[in-house]
């Protein structure tokens, strides 16, 4: 059977049974070794929905690593960012936040407007440049079944991934940025007097759960990239296409638990060894957003109220303590391009006002152009190191060099 026919056959499995989703694509990977502890249809192309924001976070962390951005760098809510559909924070155009606060809002609230604003910030003001950086990073990581068209996962032609590729991305984040694990495991945020809870139901309920990101659109069903750590061993699991959040969390807990009982030494196949797919991503809208699908989720919620076990899982417990929340706010950022330090909103945002500009080359008072570091010098070596660490930085430099 060809890869294309296999994708069609697997897609059919998901929509059998009178319009109710019957299966989910899953994979469980040992982070230290990359070994595949279990998988089901992991290479099938799928709409990633808001799990896309993991790539947005990855590139933001890369920018912090290379010191082209800092945790207190300003993220501006542009008009195009503010007009993104919900879920969103709903800040006014011109609102300014710190990058670290923006990352938590994006990962906890799954805020599409904030994700777009982060993309513009990392992309030097250009969302097109940032999307190109996303696809460059995906290629560099070996995510051969992924293509991105936006930083937030809103549906559109050309936006797809797979359980395998999202496991590769989640594993890369856990390996490369261990100091930022708490950003992906934040149980909730508070903004002024409002509290916003993370939709990852494993947090605080599954032993060792420590991230990462949920996602949902009709075409994808309910998705989750989850990580858990026990006894200095970390596992990343992906569930794509579950018929509801309760089913998704229950399945994720089960496959992670089973993964902890598998010895990676007994397995040879790594996530990079899995094949690639062909064709368009599966679309399970008819099952997920049909009357039957909505009824199934309502019945699941009703059953949940009567269960002794959280999410109907023997591996999860009720959250019997207050959530660990992190306060976020607007303002407090350092100065940035066209942004004064500390402001929470840019006055008269979007209205051109006369501003001083430096003299252009050849004009009186113009400074001499900065010379490039000498080949082989310490400055040149450091600049090259930063370029290699930050996917798509060459694209960013080209964009910024345009008049």
TrEMBL record:
<feature type="active site">
    <location>
        <position position="110"/>
    </location>
</feature>
<feature type="active site" description="Proton acceptor">
    <location>
        <position position="53"/>
    </location>
</feature>
<feature type="compositionally biased region" description="Low complexity">
    <location>
        <begin position="357"/>
        <end position="379"/>
    </location>
</feature>
<dbReference type="GO" id="GO:0071555">
    <property type="term" value="P:cell wall organization"/>
</dbReference>
<keyword id="KW-0573">Peptidoglycan synthesis</keyword>
<keyword id="KW-0378">Hydrolase</keyword>
<feature type="binding site">
    <location>
        <position position="213"/>
    </location>
    <ligand>
        <name>substrate</name>
    </ligand>
</feature>
<feature type="region of interest" description="Disordered">
    <location>
        <begin position="357"/>
        <end position="403"/>
    </location>
</feature>
<keyword id="KW-0645">Protease</keyword>
<keyword id="KW-0133">Cell shape</keyword>
<dbReference type="GO" id="GO:0006508">
    <property type="term" value="P:proteolysis"/>
</dbReference>
<dbReference type="Pfam" id="PF00768">
    <property type="entry name" value="Peptidase_S11"/>
</dbReference>
<dbReference type="GO" id="GO:0008360">
    <property type="term" value="P:regulation of cell shape"/>
</dbReference>
<dbReference type="GO" id="GO:0009252">
    <property type="term" value="P:peptidoglycan biosynthetic process"/>
</dbReference>
<feature type="signal peptide">
    <location>
        <begin position="1"/>
        <end position="23"/>
    </location>
</feature>
<dbReference type="GO" id="GO:0009002">
    <property type="term" value="F:serine-type D-Ala-D-Ala carboxypeptidase activity"/>
</dbReference>
<keyword id="KW-0121">Carboxypeptidase</keyword>
<keyword id="KW-0961">Cell wall biogenesis/degradation</keyword>
<dbReference type="InterPro" id="IPR001967">
    <property type="entry name" value="Peptidase_S11_N"/>
</dbReference>
<feature type="compositionally biased region" description="Basic and acidic residues">
    <location>
        <begin position="297"/>
        <end position="310"/>
    </location>
</feature>
<comment type="similarity">
    <text>Belongs to the peptidase S11 family.</text>
</comment>
<protein>
    <submittedName>
        <fullName>D-alanyl-D-alanine carboxypeptidase</fullName>
    </submittedName>
</protein>
<feature type="region of interest" description="Disordered">
    <location>
        <begin position="295"/>
        <end position="320"/>
    </location>
</feature>
<dbReference type="InterPro" id="IPR012338">
    <property type="entry name" value="Beta-lactam/transpept-like"/>
</dbReference>
<keyword id="KW-0732">Signal</keyword>
<feature type="compositionally biased region" description="Basic and acidic residues">
    <location>
        <begin position="382"/>
        <end position="403"/>
    </location>
</feature>
<dbReference type="InterPro" id="IPR018044">
    <property type="entry name" value="Peptidase_S11"/>
</dbReference>
<feature type="active site" description="Acyl-ester intermediate">
    <location>
        <position position="50"/>
    </location>
</feature>
<feature type="domain" description="Peptidase S11 D-alanyl-D-alanine carboxypeptidase A N-terminal">
    <location>
        <begin position="21"/>
        <end position="243"/>
    </location>
</feature>
């Amino acid at each position: 059977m060809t890869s294309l026919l296999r994708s069609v056959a697997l897609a059919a499995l998901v929509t059998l049974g009178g319009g109710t989703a019957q299966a989910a694509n899953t994979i469980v990977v040992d982070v230290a070794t990359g070994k595949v502890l279990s998988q089901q249809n992991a290479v099938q192309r799928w709409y990633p929905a808001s799990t896309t924001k993991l790539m947005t976070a990855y590139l933001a962390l890369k920018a912090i690593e290379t010191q082209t951005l800092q945790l207190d760098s300003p993220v501006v809510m542009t008009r195009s960012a503010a007009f993104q559909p919900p879920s969103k924070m709903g800040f006014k155009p011109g609102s300014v936040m710190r990058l670290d606060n923006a990352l938590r809002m994006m990962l906890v609230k799954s805020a599409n407007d904030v994700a777009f604003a982060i993309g513009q910030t990392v992309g030097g003001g250009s969302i097109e440049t940032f999307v190109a950086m996303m696809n460059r990073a995906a290629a560099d990581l070996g995510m051969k079944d992924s293509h991105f068209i936006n930083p937030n996962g809103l549906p559109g032609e050309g936006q797809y991934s797979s359980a395998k590729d999202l496991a590769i991305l989640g594993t890369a984040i856990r390996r490369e940025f261990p100091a930022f694990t708490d950003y992906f495991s934040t149980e909730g945020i508070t903004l002024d007097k409002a509290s916003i809870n993370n939709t990852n139901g494993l947090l605080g309920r599954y032993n060792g759960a420590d991230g990462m990101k949920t996602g949902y659109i009709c075409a994808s069903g309910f998705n989750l990239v989850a990580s858990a750590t026990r006894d200095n061993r970390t596992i990343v699991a992906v569930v794509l296409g579950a018929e509801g959040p309760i089913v998704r969390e229950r399945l994720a807990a089960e496959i992670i638990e089973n993964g902890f009982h598998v010895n990676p030494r007994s397995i040879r196949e790594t996530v990079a060894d899995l094949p690639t797919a062909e064709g368009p991503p599966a679309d399970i809208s008819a099952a997920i957003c049909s009357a039957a699908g909505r009824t199934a989720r309502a019945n699941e919620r009703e059953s949940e109220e009567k269960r002794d076990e959280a999410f109907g899982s023997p591996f999860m417990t009720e959250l019997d303590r207050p959530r660990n929340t992190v306060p976020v706010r607007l303002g407090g950022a350092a100065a940035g391009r066209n942004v004064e330090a500390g402001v929470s909103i840019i006055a008269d945002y979007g209205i051109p006002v006369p501003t001083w500009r430096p003299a252009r080359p050849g004009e009186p008072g113009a400074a001499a152009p900065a010379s490039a570091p000498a080949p082989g010098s310490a400055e040149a070596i450091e600049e090259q190191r930063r370029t290699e660490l930050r996917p798509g930085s060459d694209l960013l430099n080209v964009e910024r060099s345009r008049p």
